[in-house]
# Entry
Amino acid sequence: MMKEQIESLLDKYYEGETSLEEEDQLKDLLKCSAGFEEEKMFFFGLEELRSEAPSKRPAPKEGRNLVNWQRSAAVLLAILSISWLFYREYQEQKEEQAYLQVVEALSIIQDNMKKGTSSLRVMDDMKHLNRTNELFRIEKIKEEE
# Structure
């Protein structure tokens, strides 16, 4: 009769229909009866676990390493992006400075060419005197001799 009562209480327990009093009665019956070793290990193992003090180890923080890695990656990406923008700005400034130097050099060359061509204008004015005879009137000198 005790075996049948234990089996009926176990059936109700596994279906989730027992009250706290019936669960206590089931535990008392399991202590006094022979057999039902798995059920005894289950019920009394739970009691042992409840009686143990919780360990002082902190619970593992799952995903924390991943979060730190993501933060590090985000910071590194931000630093690289900002560095790249500053580098591009620096390159553009260097290109603009080089362009201005070339323009200044061409301006100096143009000024020097103007000076050179202006000194040639004097020679251009004398082009009608392209013969040495006309320039120095050598013919008259030869005639006088």
User: Anything to note?
Assistant: The radius of gyration is 55 Å. The chain has a mean pLDDT of 77. Residues 67 and 73 are 10 Å apart (CA to CA).
